[in-house]
Amino acid sequence: xxxxxxxxxxxxxxxxxxxxxxxxxxxxxxxxxxxxxxxxxxxxxxxxxxxxxxxxxxxxxxxxxxxxxxxxxxxxxxxxxxxxxxxxxxxxxxxxxxxxxxxxxxxxxxxxxxxxxxxxxxxxxxxxxxxxxxxxxxxxxxxxxxxxxxxxxxxxxxxxxxxxxxxxxxxxxxxxxxxxxxxxxxxxxxxxxxxxxxxxxxxxxxxxxxxxxxxxxxxxxxxxxxxxxxxxxxxxxxxxxxxxxxxxxxxxxxxxxxxxxxxxxxxxxxxxxxxxxx
Length: 278
Prior knowledge:
It is built from 4 helices and 14 strands. By secondary structure, it is mainly β.
């Protein structure tokens, strides 16, 4: 069964500690950005940063879950102390809006329009079919095969926090056999077995390597804008994540994510605009 109170940290898991938001003496909100959630070279993952922001938005909302987040990444946020400023917007019985600004010691880094509400586990009226993914037992552990990464690519700390099993059908790039489509698919869960919840889904919505890697085009693809929709409370267990780019051109790329829980329910989606790897 889905968790009934998914945003209340039940333990000191790595994710809950890394996304913790506290009230400062002056009444503001603060967090400590964890360097272990990087995508290589000390650059913090955009989904992780957005989970920190989502926790702040929920803390200041009458509703318990983030359901729509639209983030602009102004620059790469640095690990360490950060402040969060939540500006409330219209709020009603079913949803509430706010604007959240995350700043590090240098200044503003992420600006987010957030909508919060109460998610349910009800059955969908219609849902597109789940892709035919390779069974978990036959997939490739990203952490266990880190030695296969190109020598110029730093192993992300994120891969030690989120256990990722690549679908062989979209993982030829990891074996020196890139594909013809910018599509990646994998099973994911937290490495310490923390069960998924709406905040976890926000991180999972930006958890895979850049989709150009599927074509054998490696390098950092910094996120410029990321929109995440959380659709339902996820069931316990592994989540299936698929990322797909429609076009890579002119130094830009788009990525569309879909995330299903262990029951096959679509629980989150995202779309982002990023700079293409050079």
